[in-house]
C-alpha cells in the first residue's frame, strides 16, 4: 500500500526565525544571570495552504548555551532545510530529525510548539484539547528576583493585591546567604502564613551553604526548593537532598528524559520542573509520563517566558492532571513593557484561563512584530559604508 495515501498532507513550505527585543520595565536578577530585555526568537511555520503557526524560543546562554543568533542559525541552516516539504502531521519524524543535532533545546522546542499550533489550526481545535484538555485554568505563581528585603516583600504584596497571586518563588543563591534569608523572612512577614513560598538557587550556593540556609529558614514555611547547588557536585548534592526537609526540585539539571531518570534515580532530586521553552509540547508530554512513572511531583516552571511562551506553558500545564495540581510560574510577562499578542493576557483571582481558539488560541500582532523585530534594522556599521 502506498504510504502517502494513509497520511493526511499539509506540507510545511517555510520555517522562519524572527528575532525581536522588548525591554523589561523591571529586570529580573538571579544567581546564574539576569534579564533586562526579552531578546527572543519568534518561530513561524507556514504551510502550503497558508496556515501560519507561531511559537518562541528564549535564548538562555547561562543555562543551555543558546543565543539569539545561534537559535536563528540552527533553525534556518540546520532544521528548516530538513523539515520543509514534510507533512505537518509528521511530528515524530520531525522530532527525530531535530534530535540528530545535539543541544539547542529552545530552538527545537520553538519548532515543535509552532508545529502544534499549525496542527491545531488545521484541525480547528485548540492545542490544549489536543494535548489532554484536563482543566481550563491554572493557578499562578510568580518569581521574585534579587533585591533588598523590603522591596521584594512590597512587590509580593502588590502582586497579591492586584492579581490575587498567592504563590511565590524566591530567587536565592547570593553571598552571604543571610542576604537571601532576610528576603525570605521579609516576604513571609509581608504575606502572612497562607502564602506559598519556595526557593530557587540556580546553583548559586554549594551544599554546605544550602544546608545552612535551610536550617536558618526552617521556621519560614517553604513548600519546596530548587537547584540550590550544582547537580554536578554529585556526592554533596545527594548529601543535601537527603537532609532537605523540603521537596528538592530538579530544573536545569533535568531537561530531558535521560537526565530526569538519572537525577531522580541517583537521589539528586525528588521532584521535577517542566518548561515548555526547553521541551516543547512533544517532549514535555513524555516528561510528564516519566514523572508519573517515577512517582514524583511535577511543577510547571518559567524560562522567564514572554507572552507567547507563557501561553504555551499554560496550554500544556492545564492539559494534564499532574501539571495542574500546583500553581504554575506564568506571570513574569507582567514585567515586560509590551506584548506581541493581539489580545491581553489576564490574571484574575490568581488564575489564568486557557485560550479556547484553534491552535494556541492567540495571534501575533504583525504591526508590533514589525516594530520590535531586530532583523530589519540597519546595522550601525552599515552607516559607515
Ligand atoms: Mg529554576
From TrEMBL:
Organism: Corynebacterium comes
Protein name: L-Ala-D/L-Glu epimerase
Broad class of enzyme this protein falls into: isomerase
Keywords: Isomerase, Magnesium, Menaquinone biosynthesis, Metal-binding
EC number, as in UniProt: 5.1.1.-
Cofactor(s) annotated in UniProt: Mg(2+)
Gene Ontology MF term list: magnesium ion binding; racemase and epimerase activity
Residue intervals of the Mandelate racemase/muconate lactonizing enzyme C-terminal domain: 149-247
Similarity-based family: Belongs to the mandelate racemase/muconate lactonizing enzyme family.
Stored PANTHER family: O-SUCCINYLBENZOATE SYNTHASE, O-SUCCINYLBENZOATE SYNTHASE-RELATED
Key word Phosphoprotein present: no
Amino acid at each position: 500500500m502506498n504510504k502517502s495515501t494513509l497520511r493526511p498532507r499539509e506540507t510545511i513550505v517555510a520555517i522562519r526565525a524572527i528575532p525581536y527585543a522588548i525591554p523589561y520595565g523591571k529586570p529580573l536578577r538571579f544567581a546564574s544571570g539576569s534579564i533586562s530585555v526579552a531578546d527572543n526568537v519568534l518561530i513561524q511555520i507556514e504551510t502550503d495552504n497558508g496556515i501560519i503557526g507561531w511559537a518562541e524560543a528564549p535564548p538562555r546562554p547561562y543555562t543551555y548555551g543558546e543565543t539569539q543568533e545561534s537559535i536563528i542559525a540552527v533553525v534556518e541552516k540546520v532544521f528548516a532545510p530538513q523539515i520543509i516539504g514534510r507533512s505537518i502531521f509528521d511530528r515524530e519524524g520531525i522530532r527525530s530529525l531535530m534530535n540528530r543535532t545535539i543541544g539547542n533545546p529552545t530552538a527545537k522546542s520553538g519548532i515543535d510548539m509552532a508545529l502544534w499550533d499549525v496542527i491545531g489550526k488545521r484541525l480547528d481545535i485548540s492545542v490544549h484539547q489536543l494535548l489532554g484538555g484536563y482543566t481550563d485554568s491554572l493557578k499562578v505563581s510568580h518569581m521574585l528576583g534579587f533585591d533588598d528585603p523590603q522591596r521584594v516583600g512590597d512587590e509580593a504584596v502588590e502582586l497579591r493585591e492586584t492579581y490575587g497571586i498567592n504563590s511565590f518563588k524566591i530567587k536565592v543563591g547570593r553571598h552571604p546567604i543571610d542576604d537571601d534569608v532576610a528576603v525570605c523572612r521579609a516576604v513571609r512577614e509581608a504575606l502572612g502564613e497562607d502564602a506559598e513560598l519556595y526557593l530557587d538557587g540556580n546553583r548559586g550556593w554549594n551544599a554546605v551553604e544550602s544546608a545552612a540556609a535551610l536550617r536558618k529558614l526552617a521556621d519560614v514555611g517553604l513548600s519546596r526548593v530548587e537547584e540550590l547547588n550544582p547537580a554536578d557536585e554529585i556526592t554533596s548534592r545527594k548529601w543535601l537532598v537527603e537532609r532537605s526537609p523540603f521537596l528538592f526540585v530538579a530544573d536545569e539539571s533535568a531537561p530531558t528524559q535521560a537526565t530526569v531518570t538519572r537525577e531522580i534515580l541517583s537521589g539528586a532530586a525528588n521532584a521535577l520542573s517542566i518548561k515548555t521553552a526547553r521541551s516543547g509540547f512533544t517532549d514535555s508530554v513524555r516528561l510528564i509520563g516519566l514523572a508519573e512513572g517515577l512517582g514524583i511531583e511535577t511543577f510547571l516552571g518559567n524560562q522567564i517566558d514572554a507572552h507567547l511562551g507563557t501561553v504555551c506553558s499554560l496550554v500544556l500545564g492545564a492539559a494534564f492532571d499532574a501539571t495542574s495540581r500546583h500553581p504554575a510560574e506564568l506571570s513574569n510577562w507582567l514585567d515586560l513593557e509590551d506584548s506581541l499578542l493581539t489580545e491581553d493576557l489576564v490574571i484574575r483571582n490568581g488564575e489564568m484561563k486557557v485560550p479556547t481558539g484553534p491552535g494556541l488560541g492567540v495571534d501575533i500582532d504583525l504591526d508590533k512584530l514589525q516594530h520590535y523585530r531586530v532583523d530589519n534594522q540597519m546595522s550601525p556599521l552599515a552607516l559607515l559604508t
